[in-house]
Request: fold
Amino acid sequence: MAVEEKAEQEYVPPKKKPSSAEEKRRKNITPGSLMKAIIRPGGGTLQPVDGDQVIFHCTIRTLDGVMVESTRLEHGGKGNPIKCVMGKSKMILGFCEGIPTMLKGEVAMFKMKPELHYAEVDCPVAAPEAFPKDDELHFEIELIDFFKVKVISEDFGVLKKVIKEGEGWESPREPYEVKSWITANAGDGKLILSHTEGEPFFFIFGKAEVPKGLEMGIGTMTRGEKAVIYVSSLYLTQSPFMPVVEGYDEVQFEVELVRFIQVRDMLGDGRLIKRRMVDGKGEFPMDCPLHDSLLRVHYKGMLANEQRTVFYDTRVDNNDLPLEFGSGEGLVPEGLEMSVRLMLPGEIALVTCPPDYAYDKFPRPANVPDGAYVQWEIELLGFEMPKDWTGLSFKSIMEEADKIKDTGNRLFKEGKFELAKAKYEKVLREYNHVNPQDDEEGKIFLNSRNSLNLNVAACYQKMGEFRKSIEACNKVLDGNPTHVKALYRRGIAYMSIGEFDEARNDFNMMITIDKSSEPDATSALMKLKQKEQEIEKKARKQFKGLFDKKPGEIAYVGSDPTEDHNPKKETDQDEIVTSDRDDETEQIPEAAAPMGLFARVWPASRRFFTALGLQKCSIL
Reply:
């Protein structure tokens, strides 16, 4: 075959906007330092650009024809062409400037001055051993192929060539379940293995079930995408898919990503697992439901056994009507709501749930055994965002407030005090922006706000947080010191933490303010007196014999020489009500001894012993 050779021409830099690094390197290019002669023309019109992987053979000779080195077998090379990514790989300056002028299949001879190859100042590529880097040389290059690639690893050990674009924006990540067709070929094109028949190859992302480089490449693909992933030996780790990796410098994986399922470990311990079966509409997580959204779902509940026994289906048991519930209201099992909150509209998910997040704390269907794992197949039909109160009339605001308050009241009756409190507090936060326009609206607004604060106080009492209950009552009494219901609720809280004088004052104040409250106040005072007598009785029993000792003998509070002193045992036997002091610190005078067990049992003991002239719990 005749060899076509064009006259040697001076190199003309391509017209493109250079980077600062390229600009600096180009200063070394002087007229005549890089010359090109075409030996064989290429095909097409496209030329390599930055981001393309170029594959080429290279033979280097001296100007008088002496062979220096070559990639070709016939010239003593290994037969493996050079692979670089234009604009990213480290290359000699002559390659950076000459290769972008070539066409696919073209063979060209480049004559380079030393400063255009390995004698360049600060050359990024080290010269081979015994290489005549200070000589002017001929570089014969055959551009075999070039194509756009995505650099997966910074060291170019993993590259991806897209054959067919995929759909959507999401890519697999840990711990997604992935199905794909995969073929592995060696660098010379020899088939290593193929998985393109039967069922697509299944693996769990992040579990090292495929070579590391292959997984890195698949992690950049979208559903339906076809690509070739080039993996160097550094990223060829052993795996169930490819047990043998020795002997390969590079493997080319042809991959078609059939599908992948989002798998989310909700608790981090592998018990509550959500699998996305059908994609929803929108972008995760921005388009997921908010905390106060009204959710609409269809769901099918099954036992997590081999038979997948169905115990409820909204399409069958609810006449095809979806389930509607407010997020954060505790109307459905916790595991189900946690999963729905991470779904997009239209998404279908399969959720495997442990008993403590299913029906251990929620009314259990009759056909669900105690302690059974369940599965829900959930379809999120849609959700409504909480209404914005901005610009609403006073009447509309109060109507919205009543709806939320009614939900809180229902949750309170069901014993879900934390959730009920959250509903009441939501309305109170919104009330910070409400401005009544006249006295009538002001009266309605004040009554509603006081009612909500008292409901919050009731929730705190049910939760055993009596100090916070007192604070909620004070918000009412600060504006209306004669509010009977607030006095009663605060008195109960005071009595629960043993502050009997404060409780007595509140109950007596009720009678003074409103005679109709006298029965409730009298009943509370009787309970208060009974509680004081019980504590005094316990104290007398505990201090029995304290004052019978002779001078010089020591008697300790609650001690009995015939019994082992075990504070824990005493605490278990006595009914002690203590206050929640997590958010406040009582200042004790420096000279005073710290309050002990007895002081907590009998809060008035400090005053009792002070009156007797005794400040310690032992006498000499």
The longest helix spans residues 518-542.
